[in-house]
Amino acid sequence: MKRGLALTAILAMASAAVAADKEVENLLANMRTAYNSVKSASLTVNMLLFTAPGQGITLNIKMEYVKSNRVRAELEATGGMSANVYCDGTTVTVIESRFNQRSVKKFSIDSLNAAMPANLETFNFWDWKRQLSTGVGGNMKDSQLKIVKKQNWNGKEWTVLEETAPDAGVFVQYYIDPKTHFIWRTVVKRLESGALFQDVRITRLELGAKIDPERFKAPDGS
């Protein structure tokens, strides 16, 4: 009898885990569909990056995107630091404004991501297939994922996807609009200490924006 009860409990827990996994996969699928559908976007992103407890910098990003790999970003950080990122689908160019220092790399999704000091609320526009996947080659393959519904932030209820990523040493909360499936806020904490590392928020998002293709070309470096 006791063994039967134990087996029933195990089966119930296994069934709940499968249901939770299915819910997560459905959410990720909806998010992939949403980001894949974006032909162009203009957005503003605000990031708080903590370099030590109680200390950090603020970074403001004005970004333009045209499917599938054209990106322009204007970056302004605490202390007057600024830079521009240009990706025309062939090269990724970063120009530090104060000293006009220039870095040019051949385009790849990794080189573009490395040039953009942001997170999935931004990367997903061009890297949704890899970032939002638990399958082979997916960046969430080894993560533990949990959905928390109806979380309040900024006067609205959000679906929050919680990601525990031991390999990266972080715990991440993605605030997702339950209707559109876009991420509007990403909160990153150190897994070991629980200290806040990043708080990234989209403050403006215009989908279908008309953007001149010339804006993605870096100015002459001469």
N→C terminal distance: 82 Å
**What is the helix tally?**
3
How are the strands of the largest sheet arranged?
A: 6-5-4-3-2-1-11-10-9-8-7
User: What's the overall average pLDDT, rounded?
Assistant: 90
Low-confidence stretches: 7-20
Number of strands: 11
By secondary-structure content and strand pairing, the structural class works out as alpha+beta
Largest sheet features: 11 strands, antiparallel
Shape: globular
Written as H for each helix and E for each strand, in order along the chain, the element string is HEEEEEEHHEEEEE
What percentage of the residues does DSSP assign to strands (E)?
35-45%
Radius of gyration: 20 Å
DSSP helix fraction = 10-25%
Write the layout of secondary structure elements.
Elements lengths: L1 H35 L3 E13 L2 E12 L3 E8 L4 E7 L2 E6 L4 E6 L2 H7 L4 H12 L12 E10 L2 E10 L4 E7 L6 E8 L5 E12 L15
Antiparallel strand pairs: 1-2, 1-11, 2-3, 3-4, 4-5, 5-6, 7-8, 8-9, 9-10, 10-11
